[in-house]
């Protein structure tokens, strides 16, 4: 584990000057003005989205659930950004659902008919699910950068992301059974596929025990562990900038095909990518990449058109 942390620190030290400048001079992005989220451009084509309720430990209220949908709907269509980094402002990533804010919608209803009450409650749950489905449906890669606590709804959020990084002080908890319910916004569906260990997932879900950073690393929930939050964010921005330098057609096409293949058979996945690439192989990006290779240029020196 110590070697993994040291590797993360060394990665941060190799961060390019461009990324460091970008992270120090973060600028707000006009179309991305929210109450519960803070969106800033930290590098070329990289958007940093922070859960921004630090005084409430980034508990997820109704506004945050709604704004997550709005944010990622916009990112999906915004050609200025190719990668998103999600983190939490303040002392922790998130404590999960804001029970005080959400209790009215979830537990109280003017309906007296049980069936109609259930119908409305189901619609509410589906709306909440879309908050994080939007992350998965967004064609741009999304990197989760977790520090300190990631509880309940936080697990729903990060399992919808493409890459997960954390700091050494991070811990993860599927908390729902402790408040008398089954997780219903994505954890039970995505976590088993992310981790690939049914026994471990069952244990985490049934006991609501904490999982620390080293265990999260060993089971595959996160791919890197950094010494602290600052190092983690710089590492996340560096990784995002590297991904953003690639062909957006290649990167976004890869994300869409990997998600499709996750939910389908190998045969269906191969058929899908064959149909996909019968048009995408005609892109000018392949010509640019081949020409750069002949000229012994680095991939980062290629300028790809916006998508």
Terminal-residue CA separation: 39 Å
Largest sheet: 7 strands, mixed
Report low-confidence residues grouped into runs of 5 or more. Answer: 9-25
**Helical segment count:** 13
Q: Largest sheet, order of strands side by side?
A: 1-2-3-4-5-7-10
Give me the strand/helix succession.
Answer: HHEEEHEHHEEHEEHHEHEHHHH
SS class: alpha/beta
Report the average pLDDT across residues.
91
Bulk shape: globular
Helix percentage range: 40-55%
| Total strand segments | 10
Radius of gyration, CA atoms, in whole angstroms: 20 Å
Beta-strand content: 15-25%
Quick structural overview:
The protein is globular, with a radius of gyration of 20 Å. By secondary structure, the protein is α/β, with parallel strands linked by helices.
Could you explain the architecture of this structure?
The longest helix is centred in the middle third of the chain and has 24 residues, at 114-137. The two termini are 39 Å apart. This protein has helices at residues 2-13, 17-24, 62-77, 99-107, 114-137, 153-159, 187-195, 198-207, 213-219, 229-244, 248-262, 266-280, 284-294, and strands spanning 27-33, 37-43, 46-51, 83-88, 142-146, 149-151, 163-167, 171-173, 211-212, 224-226. It is 52% helix and 15% strand. A seven-stranded mixed sheet has the order 1-2-3-4-5-7-10, with helices on both faces. A hairpin with a 3-residue loop joins strand 1 (27-33) and strand 2 (37-43). The protein has 307 residues and is of the alpha/beta class. Helix 1 crosses helix 10, helix 3 (62-77) crosses helix 5 and helix 7 (187-195) packs antiparallel against helix 8 (198-207). Mean pLDDT is 91; it is low at 9-25.
């Amino acid at each position: 584990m110590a070697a993994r942390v040291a590797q993360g620190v060394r990665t941060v030290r190799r961060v390019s000057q461009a990324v460091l400048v970008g992270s120090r001079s973060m600028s707000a992005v006009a179309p991305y003005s929210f109450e519960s989220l803070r969106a800033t451009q930290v590098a070329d084509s990289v958007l940093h989205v922070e859960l921004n309720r630090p005084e409430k430990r980034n508990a997820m209220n109704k506004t945050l659930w709604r704004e997550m949908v709005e944010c990622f709907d916009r990112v999906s269509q915004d050609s200025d950004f190719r990668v998103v980094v999600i983190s939490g402002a303040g002392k922790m990533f998130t404590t999960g659902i804001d029970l005080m804010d959400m209790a009215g919608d979830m537990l109280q209803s003017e309906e007296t008919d049980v069936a109609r009450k259930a119908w409305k409650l189901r619609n509410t749950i589906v709306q909440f699910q879309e908050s994080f489905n939007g992350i998965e449906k967004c064609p741009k890669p999304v990197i989760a950068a977790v520090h300190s606590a990631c509880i309940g709804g936080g697990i729903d959020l990060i399992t919808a992301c493409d890459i997960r990084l954390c700091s050494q002080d991070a811990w993860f908890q599927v908390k729902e059974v402790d408040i008398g319910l089954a997780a219903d916004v994505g954890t039970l569906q995505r976590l088993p596929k992310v981790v690939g260990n049914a026994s471990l997932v069952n244990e985490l879900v049934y006991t609501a025990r904490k999982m620390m950073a080293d265990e999260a690393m060993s089971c595959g929930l996160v791919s890197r562990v950094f010494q602290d939050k600052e190092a983690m964010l710089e590492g996340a921005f560096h990784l995002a900038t590297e991904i953003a330098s690639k062909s957006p057609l290649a990167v976004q096409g890869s994300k869409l095909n990997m998600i499709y293949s996750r939910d389908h058979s190998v045969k269906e996945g191969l058929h899908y990518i064959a149909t996909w690439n019968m048009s995408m192989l005609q892109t000018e990006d392949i010509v640019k990449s081949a020409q750069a290779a002949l000229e012994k240029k680095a991939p980062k020196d290629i300028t790809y058109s916006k998508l």
